[in-house]
Design brief:
about 100 residues; mainly alpha; two-stranded antiparallel sheet; 2 strands
Amino acid sequence: SLVDYQDEYIAGAVRYDVAERSNFFLAPIAAASLELLLEWGPERIQEYCFELTTDFLQAAAELGYLVEDDRWRASHLFGLRMPDSVDLAALRGALDRR
């Protein structure tokens, strides 16, 4: 339970660890965050995110990356599918060298 947490379970179960720790100090911060989200409104947040990402996603599409149509995704969350012309092994090598 959250109030009777057993530290000895952590070492053997690290692979299942998803940072679920009780930290009641953060409760007022979480509450304030939720109040801000309600004040701003989900629609306004999505509009703002749409404005932030539109140029980038259009440029990515022009480079051949596949981007889901705006109607089928949220504006704050998107994925890019690489074009078939991208050599994945070469890309991984380039990223590894960085």
